[in-house]
Write a structure and sequence with these properties.
about 325 residues, 3 domains, 4 helices, about 40% helix, elongated, transcription regulation, SGF29_tudor-like_dom, SGF29, transcription
């Protein structure tokens, strides 16, 4: 593919992933057809053996049992021969059944492997599509910033800007980091989500984040926030002497099986897992997470080390149904 200027044009990511997958799957139909053709042949042989077995059984039933007084020696000899033939037929049926199971397992593994590969390629494709949409948004943001810088006076940076830069250096927020991001409006109760940093502006005043849970291309998947609205998440393999939140202290933590972060209190600090070279989970009690078996007390939940961050000083609690603020009652 070439552009209007005659330069090579890069193929769309979807075509690259599709071609890669088709190269690997091209031989699959022939392999599957071969397996099922063999299974069909075995089924035909099984049917013939079943018919033979039914005929032999019918003949056996026509002859008096060997223990019968009316059975002659000749009949006993014929009956013994028929039983021997039946045993051979049943043995062959068992072998054919095992062969069919083995062939079916082979077909299942072939299909399963290609399905797993397709799932991996789809994840890569969806991720690239999401990032492409984010890059378009970032290009628009960069253009806005460039226009603003062109019209800005060459004044000395204010103290607020200096503090912002220092904060960025301290927490080392950079593109690609996973963070906790505050997306609620000013004055509203705090709402924090799990997000990924897409860009940090040159003057560190704006951090562009991508909601980890939002659908690709969703109108609310990208947010432009100030540094005060973003907290970098620690990594599970932080240094062994990393600073821990002590028992009884309030933290901001991701509720299990969600991508939302809420206020919680530390019930038990994590332990260093030397075998894995990483920190174990915190035991936390979240606001208004009452234990149904112990009314008035919160459930102690296990939360991964990397999903627990400091609680902002100006954190605004949501109102409960009764009009009060959320609360925590713990039991150890």
């Amino acid at each position: 593919m070439v552009t209007a200027a005659g330069e090579p044009k890069e193929a769309p990511p979807g075509k690259i992933y599709l071609d890669t997958y088709l190269d690997g799957v091209s031989a699959l139909p022939a392999e599957i057809c071969r397996v099922f053709s063999t299974v069909k042949d075995i089924s035909s042989r099984e049917q013939e053996l079943l018919e033979t077995s039914e005929k032999l059984t019918a003949r056996c039933l026509e002859i008096p049992p060997q223990t019968s007084r009316n059975a002659t020696d000749e009949q006993k000899k014929v009956l013994a021969g028929l039983r021997s033939e039946l045993e051979v037929v049943h043995k062959n049926l068992s072998m054919l059944a095992d062969e069919k199971v083995e062939l079916t397992s082979t077909a299942y593994e072939l299909l399963g492997g290609h399905i797993s590969l397709l799932d991996e390629e789809l994840v890569k494709f969806e991720s690239e599509l999401t990032f492409n949409l984010a890059e378009q948004e970032l290009e628009h943001l960069h253009q806005q910033q460039a226009d603003a810088l062109a019209n800005r006076d060459n004044r000395t940076p204010t103290a607020a800007a200096a503090v912002t830069y220092t904060a960025r250096e301290e927490f080392q927020i950079k593109q690609g980091d996973q963070v906790a991001a505050k997306t609620s409006r000013t004055g509203a109760p705090d709402e924090w989500i799990l997000a990924r940093v897409m860009n940090v502006s040159d003057d560190s005043s704006t951090i562009t984040i991508l909601d980890e849970h939002a659908d690709a291309g969703g109108s609310s998947s990208i947010h432009h926030l100030s540094p005060r609205q973003v907290i970098r998440l620690p990594k599970p393999k932080e240094k062994k002497n990393a600073k821990l939140f002590q028992e009884g202290s309030f933290v901001l933590a991701m509720f299990p099986e969600t991508t939302m972060l809420y206020r919680a209190v530390v019930v038990q600090t994590p332990r260093w897992q030397g075998k894995n070279g990483s920190w174990g989970p915190y035991s936390l009690a979240f606001d208004d997470d009452e234990d149904p078996n112990n009314p008035g007390y919160s459930i102690n939940r296990q939360v991964a080390f990397q999903h627990v961050v400091p609680l902002p000083r100006d954190f605004k609690l949501p109102r409960t149904r009764g009009g009060g603020v959320a609360s925590i009652n713990m039991y150890m």
